[in-house]
Amino acid sequence: MSEAITLRYTVPGDDFTRAGEASADVKRNLKRMGVDREAVRKAAIALYEGEINLAIHAGGGEITVTLTPDTIVMLLEDHGPGIPDIALAMSEGWSTAPDEVRSLGFGAGMGLPNMKKYSDRFDIQSTVGVGTTIRMEVDL
Q: Does residue 117 register a pLDDT over 90?
């Protein structure tokens, strides 16, 4: 691959029947392009976690995935409530998910920690009342 390929997705808020569609499509595309299996696995896990967070916490958002010859770059942007304490939100097991979301098996407080764990580089910027932007990169 000599030039970047970009994929864009809109994640609807509060629709868990569609949460996971973007990460599944990215996984399918990366496999079809012959990307290393481990890089595909890491990107799919990190992106799925982000996609679920967009649906649960942010009322939806936008995902842009750019595949360069060296890196898979995943950018997640929302206009949700923002994260007041990023360090706390990054703690394993800490969650603000409502009970109805937890009853569906989501909201265990592993989303952000797993996003960081399965990314080679991870950056999160959030402003309360404005939204959150997360950039994850997986090296090829």
A: yes
